Amino acid sequence: MKEPKKIRIAIDGPAASGKSTTARLVAKKLGYLHIDTGSMYRAITLKALRETIDASDEQQIVALAQRCRVELEPSEFGNRLFLDGKDSTSDIRLPRVTSMVSLVSSYQGVRDILVREQRRMSAAGRVVLEGRDIGTVVLPDAEVKIFMIADVGERARRRKKQLALAGIDADEKKLVRDIEERDKKDSTRHMSPLQKASDAIELDTSNLTIDEQVDFIFAKAQSIINWV
Ligand code: DC
Predict the structure, then answer these.
(1) Which candidate, 40, 31, 39, 41, places its Cα nearest to that of 9?
(2) Are 135 and 145 in contact (CB under 8 A)?
(3) Residue in 36, 40, 79, 101 to alter for ligand 1 test, most ligand atoms within 8 A of Cβ
(4) pLDDT grade, residue 228 (50/70/90)?
(5) How far is 217 from 213, CA to CA, in rounded Å?
């Protein structure tokens, strides 16, 4: 009997499109490693804030990315992120980080460092990577490529619920504006903009439950893993 294939699954899409939860659950169902690449860009941004380095100073930010140690450790509730050995899982989600991360992630030097690391972590297969440039840049030959979209109103509602769980009461209209702003920055930037790979499957999740999204990707992955 043939060994099951060890594949790489790329999930891209805009902010709050449901990528993270979906990627985490797909990875869990397959027994694969989940790599949230956005959390890596957030970690560099957090380090810049901790060291009070001006985010508009590209050279300094790239130098900082070079000396930064970012590790992802799977846990029952998703990955824990360690920055230079310190658990920073909650801190990377701070609003200060969110508003600065688009600029930090626009620097090619930062992207080169993180893309190299993401490829290294994916080399053996059995991974689900989520981000903005996985299907186009990080793993252009990934066996499954999904591009998740959802309308902005629905994304803001989801983000509001997520924040409420963390005890934060957010204004939905402001969330819509923030998401639109970040979409614009992420998709119009010069370096690796958010873009659907030509061979990616577009999955509109506006009217899908998380289970439906997970089942769709899981079925797609299974058909390739067991294909002989
Ligand atoms: O998915 P997220 O919101 O945690 O991502 C944070 C930021 O990082 C987002 O504004 C875009 C950037 N990012 C990126 O440029 N490339 C990736 N592969 C993942 C995220």
Answers:
(1) 31
(2) yes
(3) 101
(4) low
(5) 7
CATH code (residue 169): 3.40.50.300
Residues 166, 91 contacting (CB under 8 angstroms): no
Q: From the CA of 95, how far away is ligand 1's center (Å)?
A: 14
In the chain, the number of structural domains is 1
> Ligand 1 centroid to 132 CA: how many Å?
6
Q: Give the closest residue (by CA) to ligand 1 atom 8.
A: 38
Ligand 1 atom index nearest CA of 133: 18
pLDDT tens, 113-147? 999 999 999 999 999 999 999 999 999 999 999 99
Asked, for residue 228, whether it belongs to a domain, the answer is no
Domain that holds residue 60: 8-212
Instruction: Please calculate the CA angle 34-35-41 and round it to the nearest 5 degrees.
Output: 155
What is the four-CA torsion angle of 31, 89, 86, 66, rounded to 10 degrees? 80
What the block records as the tokens of 178 is 């923030």
Q: Is the pTM of this model over 0.85?
A: yes
- 65 near 115, Cβ under 8 Å? no
Cα–ligand 1 centroid distance for 4 (angstroms): 31
Q: For residue 1, how far is its CA from the centre of ligand 1 (angstroms)? A: 40
Give residues (CB < 6 A) around ligand 1.
15, 37-38, 41-42, 101-102, 105, 131-133, 182, 186
